[in-house]
DNA sequence: ACGTAACCGAGACGGTACGTCTAGTCTTTCA
DNA sequence: TGAAAGACTAGACGTACCGTCTCGGTTACGT
């Protein structure tokens, strides 16, 4: 990855940071569709070319913001208290609390749109929400502990959990109090 | 609503239809982000002003296309064969088949993006995908027939079913063969 | 002109007046190039069609305003005191004073532009500024009184007088104190 | 004024020329009021933004065309044959000939309209028509040669000459044969 | 130490689409 | 049937960004 023996100045790290910060700020404030390269360049006091040199697209900027934890700063890892349902409920409530907090309104929606344009964004989104790897691990552990039938279709289970979150958020309906609990009861055995 | 006794010419219905048809065609062909007012106006052989007179935004056009059933043309009503699981599986497979058919690739993604911009689109989308009107009835019937516990949280059930579809589609992962069946087994009692 | 025996309502004189008043007001305030049919219609609370029905063009409106003395309200007739030069100087100063008064800044320019589009405006402009008919009479009287050589080319004399006013105004240079006097001395014998 | 050491690409001179040529051509062909930025951009094969970047308005384009001698190409310098009247008559006839030639019909009117919108156009127009620079010199020479009284108000003389031309042209009356001669006789001593 | 390759800012450029405005024409309803 | 209200096509307006490009200046490695 690191180009050895190349001439010329090193990549300006300050510029890179400034660009990602400007990107994050704009996504958080106005959403992904209001994100413009020119705006980021202006905010970061950087020339457009410096952005285009390193990122191929708007969505790539967002992907790197995710990778750098400048968006979705929290990493949601389900605990393993022994009680699967309780753990999943807590995990859901954490995410719901994060998405509902003042600074993050519309963030998931923005990221979903970016994710439709860019697979990397989708990957990071899944990772950060702890969806596939972390939740998967928790489920495997649950199967081993006989809290979950061995033939549970884990992919579908994950999609249903995540999907319920997503469609609620997309609909703009907000999350009522019992949502996490009801969903967990519905999908997981006691 | 109906303005009584107003002077002046009536709204040109042909123009309205042509605009919505052009909108639908462009969304289906190139997706929502390639949809431009100028393009629609050109296709519909109408002046831009006629579009701006009646619709405030790009997304409002799409919302009306949905309302007029020019997008998501097929309406999926689950049957009531007495076997809830089987009915839901068939319903899921219908939708999957529709979403996967050549003309509709990316359609859901487009509509979801439009839905993030416009609450009406979101509403129509929820309605159209049959969740509330159609699946709701089926679930109520199932409760009455003791195929579903009376305390099942129907909203969460619907979100989980629909959401699983949505995230799969968004992820671009495609639907494998067992998806509908696995999902139904996961969410519904035998 | 008057259509005899025709049925239906008569032309609405109030509308006509309102249209001309709106036209005059707009020309005086913002100049001829800011004059729009839509603006006049809005000001006069009249439909566009009512304007188009009776006037073929923007400039025709201005022409009628001139004819109705709603623009260039003062009529400049040179006196005949026996002293031609003095009379012309007074006449020039009257016009200069009028053109320079607060409400009329740019008016001549506006009317000149309208005149290039519409012969009627040109005619009215000439009439109203007293040029041809009124100044012509004064010159004829001067010839008879031996204050002006009989072979003076009156058309050129008038053009030179009027033209000097016009180019000064167009240039936006303003009229200095001696202008009227100098011009009269230059063009007329003592 | 000249930006020293500025970075970035230089202004494209070819584009500038093409824009001014397109402007000139359109003014000559269809007059100033038919001049549109979009038309110029299309003719010059240049984007609209390139025009708006460098010129604030339609009239500024015309002003620069005048400054670049792409309009009113011929520069009328009065000769000095020793006979002031004869020189002025020839000068007037040259201008009349130019204004009356097929390609230039309406040109003066166009420029006058532009001049009412833009002081620079007015200035260039005065300059170009030779009044101040060129005719002024001829008059000074005439005063030195005792062909013109030393106290002749040159500004008014110029305005009268130029103004007579202008109002004739604006009136659309055309120039009859004796015009130049009569005017010169009227304004200048033998 | 010098050359040179790459970085960076600034910003011009051809484009596309935006949403607005006005021109004229045409249609409908009221009085 | 005149006038109002206003829908309609047409097309220019001036703005915002796009992604590419060209400069001039500046590192900092490699010979």
UniProtKB/TrEMBL annotation, chains A, B, C, D:
Domain HTH tetR-type: from-to ranges: 13-73
Molecular function terms, GO-annotated: DNA-binding transcription factor activity; transcription cis-regulatory region binding
Keywords for this protein: DNA-binding, Transcription, Transcription regulation
Annotated InterPro entries: Homeodomain-like_sf (IPR009057), HTH-type_TetR-like_transc_reg (IPR050109), HTH_TetR (IPR001647), Tet_transcr_reg_TetR-rel_C_sf (IPR036271), TetR_C (IPR011075)
DNA-binding region(s) in UniProt: 36-55
Keyword Transcription regulation belongs to the record: yes
PANTHER family xref list: HTH-TYPE TRANSCRIPTIONAL REGULATOR RUTR (PTHR30055), TETR-FAMILY TRANSCRIPTIONAL REGULATOR (PTHR30055:SF148)
The protein's name: TetR/AcrR family transcriptional regulator
């Amino acid at each position: 990855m690191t180009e050895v023996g190349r001439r010329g100045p090193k990549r300006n790290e300050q510029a890179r940071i400034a660009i990602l910060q400007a990107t994050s700020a704009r996504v958080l404030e106005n959403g992904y569709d209001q994100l413009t390269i020119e705006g980021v360049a202006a905010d970061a006091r950087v020339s457009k070319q410096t952005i285009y040199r390193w990122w191929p697209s708007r969505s790539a900027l967002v992907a790197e913001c995710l990778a750098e934890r400048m968006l979705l700063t929290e990493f949601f890892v389900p605990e393993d208290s022994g009680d699967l349902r309780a753990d999943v409920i807590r995990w859901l409530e954490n995410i719901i609390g994060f998405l509902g907090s003042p600074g993050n309104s519309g963030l998931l929606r923005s990221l979903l749109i970016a994710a439709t344009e860019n697979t990397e964004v989708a990957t990071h989104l899944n990772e950060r929400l702890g969806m596939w790897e972390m939740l998967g691990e928790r489920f495997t552990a649950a199967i081993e502990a006989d809290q979950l039938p061995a033939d549970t279709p884990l992919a579908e289970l994950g999609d249903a959990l995540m999907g319920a979150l997503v469609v609620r958020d997309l609909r703009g309906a907000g999350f009522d109090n019992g949502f996490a609990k009801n969903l967990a009861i519905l999908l997981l055995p006691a």
